[in-house]
Amino acid sequence: MPNHYSTLIKLGTPIVVGQIGNLVLNFADTLMIGHHSTTELAAASFVNGIFVLFVLFSIGFNFALTPVAGPFIGRNEKEEAGCVMRSCLEANVILILVLTALAIAFYFSLPFFGQPEELLPLMRPYLIVNILSIPFAVIGCQMKQFFDTIGSTKISMYVLVSSNILNIIGNYLLIYGKAGLPELGLLGAGISTASSRLVIAISFCIIFFIGKKFRVYLNGAMKNDTYKKKKLFIQINKLGWTSAIQSTIECGAFSLVAIFVGWLGTKPLAAHQIMLTASMFFYNIYLGIATAISIRVSHFAGMKEWKSIIDVTKSGFFIIIGIAAVMAVPVYLFRHDIGGLFSDDPIVGQLVAVTIIPLILYQISDAFQCSIANALRGLGEMKHLMWAAFFAYFVVSLPLSWLLGNHLGFGLVGIWYAFPVCLTVAGVLYFIILKVKLPR
Questions:
Q1: What ranges do the domains of the chain cover?
Q2: What gap in Å lies between CA 27 and CA 19, rounded to an integer?
Q3: Buried-most residue among 2, 103, 179, 377 (CB within 10 A)?
C-alpha cells in the first residue's frame, strides 16, 4: 500500500495544484465582485449556483473517458486510447447542443425563480457571456480528462494555472475598469471567465496536436474504423450521460439551495456565495487525489488487479482525510474573518462565521464519499452511482435544507446543516455498491 500512497501523490499533486488554481480564481472572483458591489455578489451567487450545474454536467460526462480509455492505458494499447478521443469528441458535440439549449431556457426563466428584482439586470448579461463559453468549457473538460487519464497530469496543471492567472488579471482590469478599459463590474468578470475557457480549450488542443509523445494517440484518433468508433461512441454515451447526471446531482444540492437562500434575501445569498467558495477550498483539493484514484482504478481494471483497486481507494481516502484535518484548523480559527475578505457588510460576515461550522463537520463524510465515488467511476459503475446520488442529494438533502432553513426558520445555517447528513448517506450507499460490484 505504501506504493499506492506515493503513486497517488505523484499523480494527484499536479491535479491538486490545478484545482488550487481554480480555487484561487474563485476566491479572487468572489473577492473582487464582493468589494465592487454586494448586490453584484448576490447576483453572481445565484447565476453561478445554477450555471455551475452545466459545467459539472460537462465534467461528469467526460469522466466517461477514464473508464473507457483507462483500461487501454493499463494494457499499453495507446492507439486504442486515442480512438476513444475521437468518439468522445463526437459525443461532446451533442452535449454542447443540449447544454446550450438548457442554458438559454434558464436565461428566459430567470424572472420565475423568485429572486430579488434588483438582481435581474445584473444576472442577464453575466449569464449570456457564460452561455457563449459552453463549447470551450466542454472541449476543455474532454482534453483535461484525457491528459489526466494517460498520466500527463502536469500538462493539465500548467494549462489551468496559466489560464487562471490570465483570468484574474482580466477580472481586475474589467471589473474595476483599469488600464483604460471600461468598468464593467459583474459583466467584466463574466467576459474574463469566458475568455479563460477559450484559452484552456485552445491550449490543450495545440499540445495534443503538436506534442511528439501524443502522436500515437493522435494516430489512433485519426483512424477511420467506423465499427470501432461506433462501438466506443455508444459506450461513452452510455457511461457519460449517467455520469453527468450523477455529478450534477452530487453538486446540485449545493447549487440548487441557492433558490432557497434567495428567498431569505440578498445578504444571505451573498454569504452563501462566500460559503460556496470556502467549500470549494476543500473540495477542489480533494478532487485532485480522488481523480488520481479514478485513474489508477481504471488502469487496474484493465489489468484485472482487483485487490489493488481496494488498496488504492483506501490509500486515497487516508490522504484526503489528512488534507482535510490540516485545512480545517485555520478555517475554523479564522471563521470570523473570512466573510470580511469578500464583503464589507458586517451581517454577511456574521452569517459566514456561523455557517462555517457545518462546513467543517461534513469533511470526513465528504472525503469518504469522494474516494468511493471516484473508485466507482474508474470501474465505469455510473448507473448505480447515479441512483445512490439521487437519493442522497435530492431525496434527503434538498427537502432537509428547505425544512431546516426555510420552514423551521434556521436560515442559511440551517440549510447548510443538511449537507453533513446527505454526504454521510451518499458515502454509505457508494461503499455498499463498491462491495457488491467489485469482483472477489
A1: 2-433
A2: 12
A3: 377
DSSP 181: -
Burial of 439 (0-12, 13-18, 19+ CB in 10 A): exposed
Q: What is the largest CA-CA distance in the chain?
A: 65
What sign results for the dihedral spanned by CA atoms 106, 110, 114, 115? positive
DSSP for 283-332, please give it. HHHHHHHHHHHHHHHHHHHHHT-HHHHHHHHHHHHHHHHHHHHHHHHHHH
Q: Are 69 and 152 in contact, with CB atoms under 8 Å apart? A: no
pTM of the full predicted structure? 0.79
Does residue 23 or residue 427 have the better pLDDT? Answer: 427
Looking up cell 493539465 gives 156
pLDDT band, very low/low/confident/very high, at 342 (cuts 50, 70, 90)? confident
Half-sphere exposure in the Cβ direction for 231 (13 Å, CA):
9
Confidence of residue 1 (pLDDT cuts 50, 70, 90): very low
220: cell is 489512433
Query: What are the angstrom distances between the C-alpha of 286 and each of 84, 138, 222, 324, 422?
Result: 27, 22, 35, 8, 18
CB atoms within 10 A of CB 35: 16
Q: How far apart are CA 188 and CA 201, in angstroms?
A: 20
Q: What is the pLDDT of residues 61-115, one digit of tens each?
A: 998 998 898 888 888 888 888 888 989 999 999 999 999 999 999 999 988 888 7
Q: Which of 243, 4, 280 is nearest to 141 (CA)?
A: 243
| Cα(140)–Cα(268) distance, integer angstroms | 33
Mean pLDDT of 183-209: 92
Backbone angles phi, psi at 427, to 5 degrees: -60, -45
Record the cell numbers describing residue 414, joined without a space: 440551517
In angstroms, what CA-CA distances link 161 with 14, 17, 47, 76? 10, 8, 24, 29
Give the pLDDT of residue 288.
83
Percent of the chain exceeding pLDDT 70 equals 98
Q: How far apart are CA 357 and CA 361, in angstroms?
A: 6
What is the C-alpha separation between 287 and 56, in angstroms, rounded?
13
How many angstroms from the chain centroid is the CA of residue 332?
A: 24
